[in-house]
Each structure stands twice: as structure tokens, then as C-alpha cells.
Amino acid sequence: YMTRQEAVARTLATLRFFHTSPQGPEPDATGYRGLYYHFLDMQTGRRASQCELSTIDSALLLAGALSAAAYFGEETADEQEIRTLADALYRRADWQWAQNQGATVTHGWTPENGFIKYRWEGYDEALLLYILALGSPTFPLPESSYAAWTSTYRWESCYGYEYLYAGSLFTHQLSHVWIDFRGIQDAFMRGKGIDYFENSRRATYLQQCYAIMNPRKFEGYRECCWGITASEGPGPATLKLNGVQREFYDYVGRGVPYGPDDGTLAPWAVAASLPFAPEIVLEALD
Questions:
Q1: Which domain does 71 fall in, by range?
Q2: pLDDT given at position 34
Q3: Same domain, yes or no, for 81 and 183?
Q4: Counted domains in the chain
Q5: Which of 71, 101, 118, 267 is 20 to 30 A away from residue 95, measured at CA?
Q6: Do 93 and 76 share a structural domain?
Q7: pLDDT higher than threshold 90 for residue 244
Q8: Where does residue 122 fall: left (phi above 0), alpha (psi -120 to 50 degrees), or beta otherwise?
Q9: According to the model, what pLDDT value does residue 242 have?
Q10: Does residue 146 share a domain with residue 135?
């Protein structure tokens, strides 16, 4: 249990750090252009392991900061400062720079090599990123950027479900931590007659169907045993099991129906599906 004041103190310490930590093009900064590196050294708070300035992880950080600002609404000095800092962090993020003159947003940037060649295209957790960036009071993306992103969507039919494809289950969950998408439709979803919440429900049921079908014949997959997503795994290794040569991975973006699938299930992926399909999630968790 944590008291409100303890939560305020931790939140304030976190936001103060991100607000005052070094921002610049130097390779050992904490961030640049209001965005932050994917990994930070826990002792120094600076960039770790020459990782990238990550647009999606910056979006998740800012969503958390804005959530804290919404929660801590009392008129004490500390809670007012939380709201002020969260707003300042949001305003500082330069999403227009992160486009790098393209239609969509880049995955990130490094001081050594500049912008990463990959962009946020195809449906995934970047739904949250685009919403935050479109709503920025200082560096908003143009509406055309969102249209460019949704133009790369893949609508598919699989195991009897029509849905907006994204392989790893977490991509159907992450943005919903902050936004209740029930009844909210963009142009793409209006055209399909559903919303993103319903799409995640279908993706959850698709996971169960895949486990029942078990196309790769892994032991244990069944109606109440599923949950294929980005996670750690037992590899890298190659083993012959029951006469079948199997390749196992370490961390990889596992997904259905196209894989990769090495028989690794993540219980947290099932639990995180609870809002979308409690009737099958509770059975799987029991």
C-alpha cells in the first residue's frame, strides 16, 4: 500500500528528473527535442548502451505523465507542480522533428547515425503516439500524417474473424491502457463498422482460435492456454523434440497467425486481455 503523499513524492521526483535532465544532441544526454532514449542508466539517468531516442517509448512516458497530472488534481503545491511539469514535458516533445520530413513518424534517432530508417506504419501500439502527437499544443502532426499511417493498415480475415491485423497481442492492448476506444471511430474504422476496442476483442479471440488449431503442434496449446506476444523466450537454441526440429528464440515479437511462434506463451498477455474478452481470459487464468 502507498499513501497519496508517498505517491505524490515519487511522481514528483520522476517528473522533476525528466524535466531537468540533459536534453541535447550529445551522445550521453537523457533525451533530445523533448523525446527520450529507450534505455537510461539507472545510476546516472543518461543514455544507456548507445540505444535510440525512441518515439514510442517517449509517447508512453508522456502518457504516464499526463495520467499523473489528471489523477493528482488537488490544489496543494506538490500536486500543482505535478500538473505543471507534465504539461511542460508534453509541450516540449517535438513530433514534427520526429517526422524527418516524411508523412509518418520515424521510430527514432541516434546521435551517431541520425534518424532510424523505419517509420511507424502498419497498425500497432503507435496509435497512442499519433493521438498524442496530433493533439500536441506546440508541435502537432498534421492530420495528413494520421491518414498516411492508417493507409498502411492491413485488414484481414482469419479463423472466421475479420480484423485489423497486428501480430503481437500487446499491440492490441497498449494504447487502451490510456484511452477507452469503445464508440470512438476514425475514418478507417467507420468504414469497417467497428472500433479499436472491438478490434482488440477479435484479436483476443483469434489468439484462442490459433491455440485450438495449433498449426505448429506445440504441446499444451489449447482453448484455455494461449497468449502469444513479444516476450523473452528459451532461446536462442535449436532442438529436436519428438522427431521435429524446433528453433527457439530469446526476445522476439511473437505473434499470430504468421509467427514467429516457438511455443512460448506469456501469461501477462492473457491477463492484459481481460477488458476485451473476460469470458475467455478468466477461464485461461483459472
A1: 4-152
A2: 99
A3: no
A4: 2
A5: 71
A6: yes
A7: no
A8: left
A9: 84
A10: yes
The domain boundary, picked from 124, 152, 180, lies at 152
Domain boundary residue, one of 152, 183, 204? 152
Amino acid (one-letter) located at 62: L
160 and 278 together in one domain? yes
Query: 144 with 184, same domain?
Result: no
- Do both 99 and 182 map to the same domain? no
- C-alpha cell belonging to residue 108: 527514432
Around Cβ 200, how many Cβ atoms within 10 Å?
25
Taking the C-alpha atoms of residue 166 and residue 171, their distance in angstroms, rounded to an integer, is 7
| Residues 162 and 215 occupy one common structural domain | yes
Q: In the predicted model, is pLDDT for residue 46 greater than 90?
A: yes
Task: Give the model confidence (pLDDT) of 199-234 as tens digits.
Answer: 999 999 999 999 999 999 999 999 999 999 999 999
* Cβ contacts of 78 within 8 Å, gap of 6 or more: 8, 9, 12, 72
Give per-residue pLDDT as tens, 113-139.
999 999 999 999 999 999 999 999 999
What is the average per-residue pLDDT within 88-105?
99
Quote the pLDDT of residue 37.
99
